[in-house]
Design a protein that fits this description.
The protein is α/β, with parallel strands linked by helices. About 50% of the residues lie in helices and about 15% in strands. Strands 1-2-3 form a three-stranded parallel β-sheet. It has a three-stranded antiparallel β-sheet with strand order 4-5-8. The N and C termini lie far apart (about 80 Å).
Length: about 425
């Protein structure tokens, strides 16, 4: 059976690169009907923290990558020592004592040519003569990275190791340990690095942010997974939106690109917008409500869910992330709106008191306060005043919302309601007259 592993170190949060590595391992396991193993490499006692473990597990679950088994290296120290002692007895390793009397176990590297048929990169050849003797067990009693990896991968029956190509240099060091211990060498597949959009290594400025940060920024898990998938693989036919279930059916590790992938936040934004458009509004609202509570726009124990759902539907197709909603829809939820200074200067610099008051009168006379009727009312008034509609649409929008862009004006008026529309227009008309 195919068995793959994702082995994060809890010395930090799960970032984009780790998220993609987890995805490709999970996807390969799903495609081959195999097992996805999670191994927490927490042997660094000083830097490993429980908060990082918790965040890694939460992020993987949020992305949808369920694991079949989980292991912690910190619980396996006796196993590593057992195999190190085996190599000692066979004369393949030796003990090195420090001046303080502490002992470390060192593996003797034998010069040889090593060939690896990488499933992504093809054949790679190494010369072990340039590799120095390898520490297996450090003087503090903990196992080194490469030794623990080999023992774990062998004893966990890992058949394929899919990881970033920054680990290529570790591959020959691990293969010589597989050979020395008599273990079967697994297949290797090294994923290309993710680079910044402008080239160079990924940085926080260019996208190297924790997966949990993308969640907090308002991205949907399925959109982020879709984007991670496109960083080194394509479903073909120039498709960019693909359901994960279909990706499982189409995925082949041999079709992963060899060249580095460039992280493009604008592309992620576009993909997230596509998923937001299709998402169930009720589910979106569940994500949005905590944001509104945090900004004190609503009382978590007393709000009109149906009204908020209507607003979500109004903005859903426009949003790039969920976090857009509180910023864009605030004028529906607060009593006193802030007018953008540039918008005021551009659209409210002349006295429109007469026009605003007339529009309020016409709205009050409407029997059916519906979007279509509001629009008819407005256009008739503009005609009666012999004015172009756009000469009034923008000033009224700014007076009602404080913004120059947003949903259609007549939908805005409908969801604000007759009274709030009247109050805001008359308030502005009064201010214009006094000014």
């Amino acid at each position: 059976m195919i068995r793959v592993r994702f082995a994060p170190s809890p010395t930090g949060y799960l970032h984009i690169g780790g998220g993609r590595t987890a995805l490709f391992n999970w996807l390969f396991a799903q495609a081959k009907k195999g097992k996805f193993i999670l191994r927490i490499e927490d042997t660094d006692r000083e830097r490993s923290k429980q908060e990082y473990v918790d965040e890694i597990l939460f992020s993987l679950k949020w992305l949808g990558f369920s694991w079949d088994e989980i292991y912690y290296q910190s619980q396996r120290l006796s196993i590593y020592k057992e195999y190190a002692e085996k190599l000692l007895k066979e004369g393949k390793a030796f003990v090195e004592r420090s001046p303080e009397g502490k002992e470390a176990i060192i593996f003797k590297v034998v010069p040889q040519k090593i060939k690896v048929n990488d499933l992504i990169r093809g054949e790679i050849e190494f010369d072990s003569s340039v590799i120095k003797d390898q520490v297996l067990i450090k003087s503090d009693g903990t196992a080194t990275y490469n030794f623990a990896c080999v023992v774990d991968d062998a004893t966990m029956d890992i058949t394929h190791i899919i990881r970033g190509d920054d680990h290529i240099s570790n591959t020959p060091k691990q293969i010589i340990l597989y050979q020395a211990l008599g273990f079967k060498v697994p297949d290797f597949a090294h994923l290309p690095l993710i680079m910044g959009a402008e080239g160079g290594r990924l940085s926080k400025r260019t996208g190297a942010t924790a997966i949990s940060d993308y969640r907090r920024m308002g991205y949907l898990a399925q959109a982020l997974v879709n984007y991670l998938l496109l960083l080194s693989w394509s479903p073909g036919d120039n498709r960019e939106i693909i359901d994960l279930n279909e990706a499982v059916r189409l995925f082949d590790i041999k079709n992963v690109n060899k060249t580095a992938a460039a992280f493009d936040l604008k592309k992620l934004d576009w993909i997230n917008n596509q998923y937001l458009k299709k998402e169930d509004p009720q589910r979106l609202l569940d994500e949005i409500i905590p944001l509104l509570v945090e900004k004190k726009y609503i009382d978590k124990n007393n709000f009109d869910r149906n009204y908020l759902l209507s607003l979500v539907k109004l903005f859903q197709g426009r949003m790039t992330t969920i976090n857009n909603f509180p910023d864009w829809a605030d004028f529906f939820l607060v009593k006193d709106i802030a007018i953008d200074p540039e918008a005021q200067k551009k659209h409210l610099s002349r006295d429109l008191s007469k026009e605003f008051k007339l529009f309020v009168e016409r709205l009050e006379g409407l029997k059916d306060f519906e979007v279509e009727k509001i629009e008819e009312c407005f256009r008739k008034m503009a005609g009666d005043l012999d004015m172009e509609a756009k000469a009034l649409i923008h000033p009224i929008r700014v007076a009602l919302t404080g913004k120059t862009i947003g949903p259609g004006l007549f939908e805005v008026i409908y969801y604000l309601g007759r009274e709030r529309t009247k109050e805001r227009l008359l308030k502005w008309a009064k201010e214009e007259k006094n000014g």
